[in-house]
Specification:
This protein has a domain of 115 residues: Cytochrome p450-Terp, domain 2, CATH 1.10.230. The protein contains twelve helices and three strands; from the N terminus they run αβββααααααααααα. It has a three-stranded antiparallel beta sheet. β2 and β3 form a beta hairpin. α4 packs antiparallel against α11, α7 packs across α10 and α9 runs parallel beside α11. InterPro entries: Citrate_synth-like_lrg_a-sub (IPR016142), Citrate_synth-like_sm_a-sub (IPR016143), Citrate_synthase (IPR002020), Citrate_synthase_sf (IPR036969). Keywords: Acyltransferase, Transferase. Belongs to the citrate synthase family.
């Protein structure tokens, strides 16, 4: 069929073919399950798992996912995304616009470490699968990653000497390994990397990366779930700031002025419009 030939009804229907949701007059199904069978019977994280993965988690898997989601809700206005939400909502825009502004700051540097850490741990696990010890694999992979950046995603924190979310999250993963909910390969990999980086401990991104990886999620989905989690904190802060009544709130109090970087003095003898020395 030529690109410009008229499309058939079937081709139009197939254009957005999806296995996620089916709708028809009077009918809504998620992954083939009527929505009325889920309402009041399915919790949020189970529903998230169902839509993303297409099946239902076991209670143990759902508990791990919920722990990761709750742990990353918020980190206060020190987090750029939260600060952006609070500033944006004072500019007269809707709360959805404020939330979107904040979510759009979640990139590789702020919000992407979980995804990156899953990828790092996947490399360690793949190497141990060839017979290399976890310690040797951690050494090789971290050295390789450090050739690209001095920062290793998921380890160390600019604010916390030891992230208070690390221990309870990893404790839950260890319990899940003991009960057979997850295999524990990525937990072992993360602990081997942490030992390699001693005394730098794992942070929230590393601990949640262990959970997402142990649950079988691809690295990019780790970022997606973090965005969903942090959106709760973004909403809470945007709504709180809305109640303050402030208008056009900037990043620093109005009594403070940013440092002005004065240009170099002009050199009359230099060629060109600017003639700076």
């Amino acid at each position: 069929m030529s690109r410009y030939e008229p499309a058939t009804l079937e081709q139009v229907s197939d254009w957005w073919a999806t296995a996620v949701t089916r709708i028809a007059p009077g009918e809504v199904e998620y992954r083939g399950i009527p929505v009325q069978e889920l309402i009041g019977q399915t919790d949020l994280v189970t529903g998230m798992w169902l839509l993303v993965r297409g099946d239902r988690p076991t209670p143990g898997q759902a508990a791990l996912l919920q722990a990761a989601i709750v742990a990353a809700f918020d980190h206060g206005p020190q987090a750029p995304s939260i600060a952006v939400a609070r500033m944006a909502v004072t500019c007269g825009i809707g709360i959805n616009n404020a939330m979107a502004s904040a979510v759009n700051t979640l990139g590789d540097s702020h919000g992407g470490a979980g995804q990156q850490c899953v990828a790092l741990l996947d490399e360690v696990v793949a190497l141990t699968g060839t017979g290399v010890t976890a310690e040797a694999a951690a050494l090789e992979v971290t050295d390789r990653w450090r050739q690209r950046s001095r920062y290793l995603p998921g380890f160390g924190h600019r604010f916390h000497p030891r992230d208070p979310r690390r221990d309870p999250l990893l404790g839950l993963v260890a319990e899940a390994v003991e009960t057979g909910v997850v295999a524990g390969h990525h937990l072992s990999a993360a602990l081997a990397v942490e030992a390699r980086l001693d005394p730098v401990p794992m942070n929230i991104d590393g601990a949640t990366a262990v959970i997402y990886a142990e649950l079988g999620f691809e690295p990019e989905l780790a970022r997606g779930f973090f965005v969903l989690s942090r959106s709760v904190g973004i909403l809470a802060h945007a709504w709180e700031e809305r109640q303050s009544g402030r208008r056009n709130k900037g990043p620093i109090p109005p009594s403070l002025l940013p440092t002005f970087l004065a240009p170099a003095p002009l050199d009359p003898a230099a060629p060109g419009p600017g003639r700076h020395r």
